[in-house]
């Protein structure tokens, strides 16, 4: 194995399921906050999920991001362009200027309307370069900024932007709402990952299954959770994310449940907070385990 300097590389993961409404954006934000608050890590979230800008809404900065959008060049869509490295050299602070601080503990690169055309633009790029542009951006321009963790909020469908996100992270966290359709969707994701790994010879793994909008009083939910635990014993998050009105309530105020004072927090939302914290802990442990195994193999 080639010797790699991994010391400066952030832990990367992509929140992905080939479906909308499965809590990808919510989980990106809450997992990021858990890693930043509980572990003091420097966390950067990147919104690749489309111009609606749900991640900046989640953190209550959408209006400001929107107001600045026309002047926001370069932006997250620019990093997929052939000329990106030239742009990055010529524009001072090109990357720093893309990054927004939130009122909470994570930083954010918001979506941009330019993302709309990136999938099409990439389709005409030769295959060797088509899927690696985001990886190069993270390695050459984001890692030097010293983030510990980079989480990607990916589109709820598989396109060239999605594939860039999967190639760049090598690690999928799959939020999964409770239901038969979703369960099949997860099997499909596992098959898709296998196909990508075989077809492109890249490292890509399902790092975590994150059961979400879980209701412990519903038999269908408890039964599905039991099946998932059996099928993915080392991938399943330690605690399911409870369904709680406290989540959309907090989001309507532009914050995560972590930012809601304890005395205002619904009991169910407290469980959401704890479950995301447990997921953050498990993610760090598993990545530590991988690193330990990798260095044993090298020795
Ligand atoms: N734990 C939860 N309990 C209740 N509602 C939730 C929970 N997590 C997310 N939601 C709601 O579910 C909807 C979809 O979540 P979202 O994160 O936008 O999914 P996606 O990014 O996959 O489309 C949003 O309206 C969000 O407020
Ligand atoms: Mg979303």
From TrEMBL:
Domain AAA: 15-201
Coiled coil start-end: none
Membrane-traversing stretches: none
InterPro entries hit by this protein: AAA_dom, DNA_Partitioning_ATPase, P-loop_NTPase
Highest taxon listed in the record's lineage: Archaea
Protein name, entry field: ParA family protein
Species of the source: Haloferax volcanii (Halobacterium volcanii)
């Amino acid at each position: 194995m080639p010797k790699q300097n991994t010391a400066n590389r952030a832990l990367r993961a992509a929140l992905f399921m080939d479906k909308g409404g499965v809590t990808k954006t919510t989980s990106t934000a809450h997992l990021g906050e858990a890693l930043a608050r509980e572990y003091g890590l420097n966390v950067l979230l990147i919104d690749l999920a489309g111009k609606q800008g749900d991640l900046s809404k989640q953190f209550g900065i959408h209006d400001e991001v929107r107001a600045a959008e026309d002047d926001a060049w370069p932006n997250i869509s620019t990093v997929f362009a052939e000329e990106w490295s030239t742009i990055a050299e010529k524009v001072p602070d090109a990357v720093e200027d893309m990054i927004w601080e939130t009122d909470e503990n994570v930083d954010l690169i918001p979506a941009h309307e330019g993302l709309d055309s990136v999938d099409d633009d990439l389709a005409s790029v030769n295959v060797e370069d088509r899927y690696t542009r985001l990886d190069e951006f993270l390695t050459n321009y984001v890692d030097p900024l010293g983030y510990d963790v980079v989480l990607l909020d990916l589109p709820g469908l598989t396109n060239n932007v999605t594939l860039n996100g999967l190639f760049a992270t090598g690690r999928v966290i799959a939020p999964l709402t409770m239901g038969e359709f979703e369960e099949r969707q997860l099997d499909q994701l596992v098959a898709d990952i296998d196909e990508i790994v075989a077809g492109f010879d890249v490292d890509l793994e399902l790092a975590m299954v994150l059961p979400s909008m879980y209701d412990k009083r519903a038999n269908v939910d408890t039964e599905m959770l039991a099946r998932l635990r059996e099928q993915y014993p080392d991938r399943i998050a330690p605690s399911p994310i409870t369904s709680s009105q406290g989540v959309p309530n907090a989001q309507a105020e532009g914050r995560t449940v972590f930012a809601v004072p304890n005395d205002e927090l619904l009991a169910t939302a407290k469980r959401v907070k704890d479950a995301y914290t447990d997921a953050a802990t498990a993610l760090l442990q598993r990545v530590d385990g991988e690193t330990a195994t990798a260095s044993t193999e090298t020795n």
